[in-house]
Amino acid sequence: MAPRRKARSIKAIKAGGTTRPGGTPGQPPIAAIESWVVQQYGVPYAGVYFVNGYIGWVVGAKGAILKTTEGGSTWTLQKSGVDVFLTDVYFLDANTGWAVGEKGTILKTTDGGIAWKKQNAGVPEMELRNVHFVDANTGWVVGVAGLIFKTDNGGKNWYEQTSGTTTGLNDVCFLDVKTGWAVGGNGTILKTEDGGKKWKPQNSGTSAILRGVSFRSKTIGLAVGHGGTILRTDNGGTKWTKQASGTTKDLYAVHSAGVTTYAAAVGAAGTVVRSPDDGKSWINATSQVTSLGITADLFAVHFFTGVHPIPTWAVGVGGVILKAPDFGVGWTAQIRPAATSSSLRDVHFADAQTGWAVADGGVILKTTDSGKIWKPQISNVSADLRGVHFANANLGWAAGKGGTILRTDNGGVDWTDVNFFLPTTKDLYDVHFPGTLVGWVVGSDGTVVMTSDSGLVQWEIQSDNVPSSSTQKQPFQDVHFISGSTGWIVGGDGTILKTGDSGQNWNDQTSGVGTDLEAVHFVDDKNGWTVGAGTVLRTVDGGQKWQIMPAHPAFAGLSDVHFLDAQTGWVVGATGIFKTKDGGKNWSAQVTTPPLVSGFNAVHFVDKTNGWAVGDLGLILKHIYVFL
Question: Model-level pTM?
Answer without folding.
Answer: 0.78
